[in-house]
From TrEMBL, chain A:
It comes from Geodermatophilus aquaeductus. The keyword Iron applies. This is Ferredoxin-NADP reductase. Its cofactor is FAD. One of its GO terms (molecular function) is oxidoreductase activity. It comes from the Bacteria. The keyword Metal-binding applies. Residues 21-122 form the FAD-binding FR-type domain. PROSITE patterns: FAD_FR.
UniProtKB/TrEMBL annotation, chain B:
This is DMSO/TMAO reductase YedYZ, molybdopterin-dependent catalytic subunit. CDD domains: arch_bact_SO_family_Moco. PANTHER family: OXIDOREDUCTASE MOLYBDOPTERIN-BINDING DOMAIN-CONTAINING PROTEIN, PROTEIN-METHIONINE-SULFOXIDE REDUCTASE. Residues 38-183 form the Oxidoreductase molybdopterin-binding domain.
Amino acid sequence: MTETGGARAGMGPRLRRAPAGGWRTATVREVDRPTPRTVRLRLEVPDRVDHLAGQHYVVRLTAEDGYRAQRSYSLASSPGDPLVELLVERLDDGEVSGYLADVVEPGDTLEVRGPIGGWFVWEGDEPALLVGGGTGVVPFVAMLRTARELGREDLLRVAVSTRTAAELPYADELRAAGALVVTTRERSGIRPAGRLTAVDLVPLWEPGQTAFVCGSASFAEAASQLLVGLGVPAPDIRVERFGPSGTSG
Amino acid sequence: MAGPTRGFLGRSRRERDPRLPPGQYDVGADWPVLTAEPTPRITPETWSITVDGRVENPVSWTWDEAHRLPPSEYRGDIHCVTTWSKFDTRFAGVSVDTLLEAARPTADAHFVMATAKTGYTTNLPLEDVTGGKAWIVWEFDGEPLPVEHGGPVRLLVPHLYFWKSAKWVTRLTLLQRDQQGFWEQNGYHDRGDPWREQRYQGD
């Protein structure tokens, strides 16, 4: 409880508070579907509070009778991007993701709130290992874009896991940044289908890095335990989990 | 506030359960895991709970000692700020009232900081953990609390958003003045009442 001493001290107090913004009415400027299960929305947000890479936004939908539903989505855009970019995975029976994937068109307005979150953020000045599963790569795209703007691509190492290459959003951008891409349901070059292993992460890990892990609950648990097994100190591992619990009810 | 979102119907509201606070949905049998850190491995032998700070009698209990305290159960609903709610849960452990009776908070104690073995913290007004509203729990549905849900022991404050129910809790520190915990420093609300939708700072 007393292990304070600065922004890098595990879950202790931060030196600097992350930016936070209130509700805004954003205008949808671009909509496309980079993979079969995802939709990419680029929003113009008036009076925007600049975010840090890794932060998220809330999208709130309101029906005619006042009923509302809201969900959080990580940003893929860098703070320097004039638009805010969300990548949304369409979940089975997804009340909000289904609407965003099937109904939203350019010119629509959406209520959004952000940026939110001050833990899973990369401030652009520290070495980091990014380990993502599926759409868990989204905050890492924001980090890579931020690094590119700062000319600090040297600070980031990336490993991502996807079922198949075709299902990985931002695949070209991730590969161009040197990401290791592991496919769990198909062969990839000479590598057979399989999960991310400690052997994959050893060459990417360096002491002093902060490790960021983002993905489904089961992926995040497995990847963070791989890092712990490699000797990465638990306070240096930041985890963002999403979606249902998966295997166990 | 903005008007309706074009073309959004939402799920049918006919069966919307009155137990759902605004903006929440029923997650059913699932129980999502949302943790910002690697899951720690804590054995009952190495776990203890301490109540300290503004108290007359700082006390610690080991696993065995805590299990000899009068048992207490919670049956009801839980609500996560990420918008899922889970109905009809059953947790068992010890009431926080029992711990505080032994520690005897001083008259100037008004807030509590809960600390987990991982260093995770969350702050609560004292009145939100007294009067039968908060527990430390080691059982869910009659089984040992799974580690990914905070086992061996977590705090349970079910009338507030679930980030207040610190997993792997090991210390309750009574404070004269409020101090922000982990998520509260990172933009989340200091109190977190789901019925008032107190999700983020400023709500």
